[in-house]
Amino acid sequence: GTLSFLSNPKYSQYIYDSNASVILVNNDFVPEKEVKATLIRVENAYESLAFLLSVVEQAKPKKTGISSQATIAATAKIGENAFIAPHVYVADGVKIGKNVRIYANCSIEEDAILGDNVTLHAGVSIYKECVIGNNCMLHSGVVIGSDGFGFAPSADGIYKKIPQMGNVVLEDDVEIGGNATIDRATLGSTIIRKGVKLDNLVQIAHNCEIGENTVIAAQTGISGSTKIGKRCIIAGQVGIAGHLQIADGTIFGAQAGQANTIKVPGQMFMGSPAFPLKDFQRSSIAFKTLPDLQKKVFELQRKIQELEKK
To answer: Is 243 an active-site residue?
Structure first.
């Protein structure tokens, strides 16, 4: 009565002992011995599993209705089939699309716009004038549109706040993990393009632009006015400096630190400061041998000193 899947060949050995009734496998899978389960061959087993899970999710009954304990301004506009939980605050001028689900303790400030099929999990804050596209999902604790980190030092050493007058725009099909934050632009917009996926605890600073279908893992921070290209992959705890351009298809390994613009698309970078993967691998090998190299250098220095004395 159970369903499983096999997409990564390194786990092929486990399929022969599986008690699943049905297993999704890629078309090119060739069993080495008998498999007890019924195999369903598909182009991409992982993608097919995701599709099936989405079907199950869509089949679940959807909550609708607006709680009497929600606070909704008279000028706010709410689309059809909306669900708004208790203790939600919706300010003046807010526009909310169809089939939106807003869970408890969310705050949506003046003139913000939410598209159709948006889900805000508990405790999300949408600041004024921010725009959320269709089919977006924001998990608990997300803050959209908090002030950018803009302060001007004065002659007496005091930092004076620069008013942050812009907003944040999320295009369609964006998902943002728990406690991630996206700062509003100083002027203009901080833009998260269509299909972007952000993990938990990601920080996007003011006036950044994240390209279509880019994915960013947890605890990554991107400094102000940096433009990330399309289809980039950014692993956990990556730091990217401000005012940079990152080419399409760039990949950053975990804890990479990028301080310069990348113009050539499709490269992979590691390390801090980050540099191309092959160079990083060669450098890592050399780094491991540094203690031995140091001993050899000291030994050579000693022998040279003995020869000079003679």
So the answer is: no
